[in-house]
Amino acid sequence: MTLLAGTALASIPLSSGAWAATAPADADNLGEIIVTGTRRIDRSVADSPSPVDVFTPEDLERQAGSDTQDLIRTLVPSFNVGHFSSDDGSGIVRPPTLRGLPPDETLVLINGKRFHRSALVQIAGDAQTSGSQGADLNQIPAIAIKQLEVLRDGASAQYGSDAIAGVMNFTLKDAADGGSVIVQWGQDYAGDGATGHIQVNSGLPLGDRGFVNISAEYQKNDPTDRGVERSDVTDLKASGYNPGPKGYPTPNQRWGDNAVEAERLFINSGIDLTDNSKIYLFGNFGHSNEKESFYYRDPVSSWLGTTFPLTSGGNFSWASVYPGGYHPWFYGDILDSSITGGYKTTLKSGLIIDASASYGRDEVRYNLTNTVNPSLGPSSPTQFYVGTQTQEETDLNLDLTYPVHIDWLASPLTLAGGAEYRRETYTITPGDAASYTSGAYAAYVPVGSNGMPGFTPTDAGQFPRSNYAFYADAEADVIKDLSLGFALRYEDFSDFGNTTNWKVTGRYQLTDWLAVRSSVNTGFRAPTPGQENVSKVTTIFQNGNPVEQGTYPVGSAIARYYGAQALKPETSFNIAGGLVFDLPYKVNLTVDYYNIKVEDRIGITSTYSVTAADIVAQPALAAVGVGGQVNYFANGFDTRTQGVDIVANKTFDLDTAGELHATAAMNINHTVVTKYNPTVIGLGQVQDLQNESPHYRATLTGVWDIGKFSILGRASYFGAWEDNVSICGTTCLGQNFDPAWIFDAEVSYKVLDDLTASIGGQNVGDKYPAKIRPEFGTYGVGQQYSFSSPYGYDGGYYYVRLKYDF
């Protein structure tokens, strides 16, 4: 009791902490039975010992976005995802954050089973996500989701590694008949960024006791561009330079969302063998292709203007091929698939047995066009296969749940236990030889497919890891109003040894209208094989000049040369406590405090500048050259993230005027870097970790149902934030951005019983963040807006949607 009350009361003072909030869509969801964060089969949102938010298909449908991550960002205030451009893979698999923590610290489940990670290791991204490797949520079509549960609490003791920030469990639709078709089209106010989206869901019977539920979607997004003309192009025009009839590329560099085309399929099925046993099978297949613009190379000051002698005689300059300069086109092809099957039964004794096996695979294949390997001279191809990264995961699970009836307990004691075996393999496949070959002219110009040299045979390989785990937990109502739970999990990794994590939860109903809940838990996240072994060289631009930047495995000679050490697991300690109010007039209010301490966090180091002496000592550094940059993965810092979730729900009965469902959620989240190694990460990274995301988020949502009409209004508040530009001495120069309100609206009309038409807008006020100040230098490469903008930088968006139910 002391622990429960003390932790809950700790949520009230806010002087040293911050707040965070996520919200169920409306008060009706408080009675939903949940399966995330508990082994009991009778838990609802309202009596959960940990905060869990539940979202329905209707919640997901009332959004303007065409990908799942943007939908969740609108619903969950502490969930953020950036819009990255000209940023390698981060623009292809956008990394989200939950409570300011990276995507690989949030566990993703499908039907309660672990969903595999993306093959893409985030080399770019922002301060919170750089270096992470999480699941690709966009592979899950919104129309396939029956219920989304977001557990806002650490759960490593229950689910294993990756559950430090929380858990997202996507339950798939399981109807055996009926279905729906949704068609949506939209466009940005600016006239670009048109999106087309078709989704289909259908339930079919499988014999007399089974079902097959199929969901499919097709998505096509046109690119956006919010850049301006680059200063080097402006200077070339002013100087009278003549690019010839080809002119300059238009735009000379694109800053905006990528062009996307995707097809995705999810299948969920099951057969009841008896009244108490069933078999189930579900899985997915997805393919998407994204096209991204890389940095522009100007024909005078970049290597294009370098003249060198050909071995066949005469002189040559790449400016003769690209007299107006050029920018490479970067393509990411993603193939994602998984399959999970299992058997679940309930014995006469009450013992529930769930045995399952799953396999997941994600492949990201890279291609470049409209570029060359400059070192090959005039014989260079202009398009390249750069290589492939693949993530494969196999999971075997046995879960046991058994209710024990004990006279002195107010409820059955739910005992649970189980075992898990998991094997994952990260694979790098080399690109075309021409994409990495050092040609005869390497002394004059860069080596490899310009923009991103291909993965070499030295980079390539298969990097496996396995681990097994055993867990046990117990949960019961000790007395009528007091519920307690305990979980313990032991894991053994083939490369990082073993760990034991625990979690204690409790909930006490103080009065008819007030309950207190609390949890304390530890967490653990082992570095992924991808983080340990990824290798990539890309071209970045500094002050308008191209610079090769290489990220090398921690075990490589280059990384060791710059001080790399073997990666260690991240560990965490979480404290949470909250109050649950059932107020007069059916107002539901929850206030939940959390404090998450993470040690030895993994990220990418600051860059090291390569000198001629470095290349003599490590000849492999010739791939980035003198003036190039090197970084690697490291355990560089510790953080403490504090917050409070505040959520209020109310449904108003307006008699003949229908019903109004209202939700208010507030999110204040604050991360502090408590310790860091300045030789590994710089002050600029520290400032971004602490201030790059708003500390304050709030959403006010109302849905008014009246007759055949349904009207939605949403106001989202984003607090002030800061973007550091890495001009650092004893302090770092950064730009502060003002708070902003973003408004969304939608009107739906039931044309027929089975046909609903909707029209709506996202960011209807056409709000843009402030432009980056010219003295920060990014205007030189045409960038107007910061990638860190929590509400994007595309402005307003309008859409129309038709939904047909059958």
UniProtKB/TrEMBL annotation:
<keyword id="KW-0998">Cell outer membrane</keyword>
<keyword id="KW-0798">TonB box</keyword>
<dbReference type="InterPro" id="IPR012910">
    <property type="entry name" value="Plug_dom"/>
</dbReference>
<keyword id="KW-0675">Receptor</keyword>
<keyword id="KW-1134">Transmembrane beta strand</keyword>
<dbReference type="InterPro" id="IPR037066">
    <property type="entry name" value="Plug_dom_sf"/>
</dbReference>
<keyword id="KW-0732">Signal</keyword>
<keyword id="KW-0812">Transmembrane</keyword>
<feature type="compositionally biased region" description="Basic and acidic residues">
    <location>
        <begin position="221"/>
        <end position="235"/>
    </location>
</feature>
<feature type="signal peptide">
    <location>
        <begin position="1"/>
        <end position="20"/>
    </location>
</feature>
<keyword id="KW-0813">Transport</keyword>
<protein>
    <submittedName>
        <fullName>TonB-dependent receptor</fullName>
    </submittedName>
</protein>
<comment type="similarity">
    <text>Belongs to the TonB-dependent receptor family.</text>
</comment>
<dbReference type="InterPro" id="IPR000531">
    <property type="entry name" value="Beta-barrel_TonB"/>
</dbReference>
<dbReference type="GO" id="GO:0009279">
    <property type="term" value="C:cell outer membrane"/>
</dbReference>
<dbReference type="InterPro" id="IPR036942">
    <property type="entry name" value="Beta-barrel_TonB_sf"/>
</dbReference>
<keyword id="KW-0472">Membrane</keyword>
<dbReference type="InterPro" id="IPR039426">
    <property type="entry name" value="TonB-dep_rcpt-like"/>
</dbReference>
<dbReference type="Pfam" id="PF07715">
    <property type="entry name" value="Plug"/>
</dbReference>
<feature type="domain" description="TonB-dependent receptor-like beta-barrel">
    <location>
        <begin position="292"/>
        <end position="764"/>
    </location>
</feature>
<feature type="domain" description="TonB-dependent receptor plug">
    <location>
        <begin position="45"/>
        <end position="167"/>
    </location>
</feature>
<dbReference type="Pfam" id="PF00593">
    <property type="entry name" value="TonB_dep_Rec_b-barrel"/>
</dbReference>
<feature type="region of interest" description="Disordered">
    <location>
        <begin position="221"/>
        <end position="253"/>
    </location>
</feature>
